[in-house]
Design goal:
mainly beta, 22-stranded antiparallel beta barrel
């Protein structure tokens, strides 16, 4: 009887949340058990959202206010059960994500394809993929994490794809409401309010969100406002949805420090006049329809308009931002402005057909993306201290030294086929063909004659891959699956690498695109030891080859960016979790749950070949890749009973280096040097009151551990950046 209850409870969430998925995805009890942690982790293993995930590394992380600090988009907690994810802890505001995997760069998550509800949210997914906008996690139901071995179906990225799936309708009632109000250390206030409902064939959902804080460091305050709304109309075979996102934030950037200062006073700031502003708007129209004979259609079109504005004193930390007596003000600041307009669309078809006793699946589609960027850089700003983005004319009469027009056009065809061989074995070969066109034109004081003749770079990219899955055991109480895959990857040079803003970096003018492949093999499954204990696991080894990787090293006292050479990253990733039902109150009629999990990775990412002749190859070959810690471990405990619960998590991130030569000691600008290992502890407890109310109290970085976590040559530095010290918060949530 208790096992039936256990199975029923842990089947509700995924089936109700993804009722539009094919019924065959949930056809046996074994698959239901391994998929259905309440607000925890799910590992789909067949076809999900018209994408073939059989034989691939793919995870769904459910979010819940009970287990995660959503108030500041805490990613080490949100992705706690996703092994291999490295989180750069330098930005405690959560306004931007900086995550990576398998030895790749975490810089604004640009090695990932970043999406929201399936559509792009980066300014230019091919030419400028930096994740400036991130949805508030209060509104996110689940985070879908695809690895680079799945890239044929959505792009060519080495890192993979992160897809934030927002909440939908909030239930089956005509009107449902949820609210979350948080106060915390450093003047942090977070307010989230949402309405959703379902009436006949219509559904709707929308939220208003505001967050503000003075910040842990001096001169690090920020505020953000987010508005989102969507409405959907469903019929027997499909649904059409219209969505709109409007996001804005303004943040003061405290700048970089030297290691000696961080070790003594990490909350210090040497810059009081640096600001960053981001207005961001995205509209999307999505269509899903199921035809006869197993054919399904998924189509979307979305338009993005955004701005990136920054103003500040951007010289290295060895230069003080002083008051200029001659000007009777501070020195003029540098102003940079970007204007983004991106139109993208994607049509995907999925066809399931039977041959004999097996059902095979073909999925494929076409994608088009047109991105236009107006880049205005090195403007002469005012000498005041506020967020003033006004520019003053130079001697030549222009407001900016650099005025560029950047355009990227991407057309892609992709297909993948799932072949079943008997009842246990499947193969999924696939391909992706991309046409990538980039153009650059404009004016710059650095160009001969001031103007640059329009330059075009066109290329065809053909990628292939294959995955395989072997289901060894598939029973109600035990499941074991072996999987393996190999996939080609490609990464074009981004515009920010070609044309950086006014910083302490220097860039090689002959940068080239990167290419390579990724592969992995492993096993996953679960074991129901008895009626009250479920053990789940996913372990794999991976191998990644990244040719012509772009990075930086110290040259003549400055940071120089170029194609460093070929990188090989290999390692293992492990997720395992023990879930105990009613471990202490065995006879209680109330559900008691204790989860103990471990998520970790061992990574060895090193340069195998050196491209640049200006430095001897023996000084780089064999060296560790930048920001590639060898160890990233997370271990945690989650407990719930009668509306009460607590959570405890420990994250250990090993040491790494900020440049390819593995400089141990920092330079004068603190842009190179060791990134020390760091251990962070987070704890929280919650209590549910009157069924609809929840109070949560938590402490992040319980033992107040601070260190250098990132070194940058430009924004938001230059210099070394620390993580945030200990902070406390309290959240009151309501759902009615």
């Amino acid at each position: 009887m208790r096992f039936s209850y256990f199975l029923a409870v842990f089947s509700i969430v995924p089936i109700s949340s993804y009722a539009q998925e094919p019924k065959e995805n949930y056809k046996n009890a074994s698959e239901i058990v391994v998929q259905t942690y309440i607000n925890s982790k799910w590992i789909p293993d067949s076809i999900f959202n018209l994408r073939i995930v059989a034989g691939k590394k793919y995870e769904v992380q459910w979010l819940s206010t009970k287990e995660v600090d959503l108030s500041t988009n805490n990613y080490r907690q949100a992705l706690r059960k996703t092994p291999g994810i490295f989180v750069s802890e330098h930005d405690a505001s959560g306004l931007q994500t900086s995550i990576a995997t398998r030895g790749l760069s975490a810089n604004r998550s640009w090695e990932f394809n970043m999406r929201q509800n399936g559509y792009d949210i980066a300014a230019d997914p091919s030419g400028y993929p930096e994740a400036y906008y991130t949805p508030t996690l209060d509104a996110v139901a689940a985070i879908h994490v695809y690895r680079g071995s799945s890239a044929l179906q959505y792009g060519s990225q080495f890192g993979g794809m992160i897809d934030y799936q927002l909440k939908d309708a909030l239930g089956s009632k005509a009107i449902s409401y949820e609210s979350s109000q948080t106060v915390g250390s450093f003047g942090t206030i977070n307010s989230f309010n949402a309405l959703g409902g379902n009436k006949g064939r219509w559904t709707y959902y929308g939220f208003l969100h505001h967050r503000q804080s003075k910040g842990y460091r001096l001169n690090s305050g920020y505020y953000t406002n987010n508005y989102f709304g969507k409405v959907g109309y469903a019929w027997s075979k499909g649904k059409i949805t219209l969505e709109y996102t409007n996001s804005y934030y303004l943040s003061q950037q405290p700048g970089g420090l030297h290691d000696t200062v961080i070790n003594l006073h990490p909350d210090t700031s040497l810059r009081a006049r640096n600001w960053f502003e981001l207005p961001w708007k995205v509209a999307s129209l999505q269509l899903n329809h199921q035809f006869k004979r197993g054919l399904k259609l998924q189509a979307l079109v979305n338009y993005l308009h955004g701005n990136r504005n920054s103003v500040g004193f951007t010289k290295g930390i060895q230069f003080a931002d002083t008051f200029n007596i001659m000007l009777n003000s501070y020195n003029p600041r540098d102003v940079d402005k970007d204007i983004y307009n991106t139109l993208s669309s994607e049509v995907r078809l999925n066809h399931a057909y039977a041959i004999g006793k097996n059902t095979h699946t073909l999925t494929g589609g076409i994608r088009f993306c047109l991105s236009d960027i107006r880049r205005l850089q090195k403007g002469k700003g005012t000498g005041n201290s506020m967020a003033d983005f006004t520019t003053l004319p130079t001697s030549s009469g222009y407001l900016f030294q650099r005025d560029l027009h950047l355009q990227t056009q991407n057309l892609a065809l992709f297909a993948e086929h799932l072949f079943l061989v008997g009842k246990r074995l499947s193969f999924s070969p696939g391909f992706r063909l991309e046409r990538l066109q980039s153009s650059l034109a404009g004016r710059s004081d650095a160009f001969l004659g001031g103007y640059l003749q329009t330059q075009h770079k066109n290329r065809w990219i053909a990628l292939g891959g294959i995955s395989a899955k072997l289901s060894v055991v598939s029973k109600r109480n035990i499941n074991l699956v072996f999987y393996a895959n190999a996939n080609q990857n490609y990464r074009p040079v981004t515009y920010s690498e070609w044309l950086p803003s006014a910083t302490t970096e220097h860039v090689d003018s002959s940068l080239r695109d990167a290419n390579g492949y990724s592969s992995e093999g492993g096993f996953k499954g679960f074991l129901l030891l008895h009626r009250r204990c479920l053990w789940s696991y996913d372990m794999n080894a991976f191998y990644l080859r990244y040719n012509h990787k772009i990075g930086s090293f110290a040259l003549n006292g400055s940071t120089y960016k170029t194609n460093l050479g070929d990188l090989i990253s290999r390692g293992v990733e492990l997720y395992t979790e023990w879930m105990f039902m009613n471990p202490f109150f065995i006879k209680s009629s109330k559900a008691e749950q204790l989860n103990i999990y471990f998520s970790g990775s061992l990574i060895d990412a090193r340069y195998q070949r050196w491209d640049n002749p200006s430095i001897p190859s023996n000084s780089v070959v064999g060296k560790q890749a930048e920001y590639a810690p060898k160890k990233v471990f997370r271990i945690g405990l989650e407990y719930k009973f009668k509306g009460f619960g607590f959570n405890y998590q420990v994250q250990y991130t090993g040491s790494c280096f900020a440049d390819a030569t593995n400089s141990q000691y920092p330079n004068a600008a603190a842009t190179i040097g060791l990134i020390p290992a760091l251990t962070l502890h987070d704890a929280s407890l919650f209590i549910t009151l009157f069924e609809n109310y929840q109070l949560k109290l938590g402490i992040n970085n319980l033992f107040d551990q601070t260190s250098v976590v990132r070194r940058v040559g430009g924004y938001p530095g230059p210099g070394a950046l620390p993580n945030q010290g200990r902070s406390a918060y309290g959240t009151l949530s309501i759902k009615i």
